[in-house]
Structures are given as structure tokens and as C-alpha cells.
Amino acid sequence: MKRSTLFTFLYLALGVCLTAIALGYPNLPSGLQTSLLINMEAILQAFSGLLAVLILAEIIVITWQVNPEH
After folding, report:
1. What are the structural domain ranges in the chain?
2. Is the separation of the CB atoms in 3 and 50 below 8 Å?
3. How far apart are CA 53 and CA 1, in angstroms?
4. The pLDDT value given to residue 18
5. What would the DSSP string read from start to end of 22-66?
6. Which pairs count as long-range contacts for 55-61, CB under 8 Å and 24+ apart, including other chains?
7. Which of 13, 23, 51, 62 sits 20 to 30 Å CA-CA off 68?
8. How far is it, in rounded angstroms, from Cα 23 to Cα 33?
9. Hey, what long-range contacts does 39-42 have (CB within 8 A, 24 or more apart)?
10. Is 35 buried (19+), middle (13-18) or exposed (0-12) by CB count in 10 A?
11. What are the φ and ψ backbone dihedral angles of 66, each rounded to 5 degrees?
């Protein structure tokens, strides 16, 4: 579970870095800037899906720990 959480935060950091690069350098060609922003959006969408799966998995683990006979 810790490995999944680490990768989730790495994906988030990558998305933030791509956004910072795309917005921080105004002299980038517009095609490259658009590509960086599209990649950032895809990474953040994957992050939100991954976060939902991690929350669901955490709920299942907590439920099993509280009620171990099932």
C-alpha cells in the first residue's frame, strides 16, 4: 500500500512540474506548451482515479481489520 501511495504522489508531482514548465516559460512554442498541458491533464486525471482506488482499498482493509471473521 505504501508503494501505491508513493507512486500516486510521484504522479501528482510530475503533473505539477509539467504545469510549471508550461506556464513558467512564456517563450515555449505554443505546440509544446499545449502538449505539456495536455500531458499534465492526463496525469492529473490518472491521479484522481488512482486516488479513488486507493481510498476504496483503504476502506476495504479497515473493514477487514475491524470485522476479521468475514
Report:
1. 2-66
2. no
3. 11
4. 77
5. HHH-TTS-HHHHHHHHHHHHHHHHHHHHHHHHHHHHHHHHHHHHH
6. 57/1, 57/4, 58/1, 61/1
7. 51
8. 8
9. 40/15, 40/16
10. middle
11. -75, -35
Sequence-distant (≥ 6) Cβ neighbours of residue 66 within 8 angstroms: none
CA distance 3 to 32: 32
Task: Please give the pLDDT value at position 3.
Answer: 63
**Of residues 37, 48, 36, the one with CA closest to residue 11:** 48
pLDDT digits (tens, 9 = 90+) for 16-36: 787 778 778 778 788 888 888
Three cell numbers, residue 29: 512554442
Residue 48, Cα to own-chain centre: how many angstroms? 6
Residue owning grid cell 468475514: 70
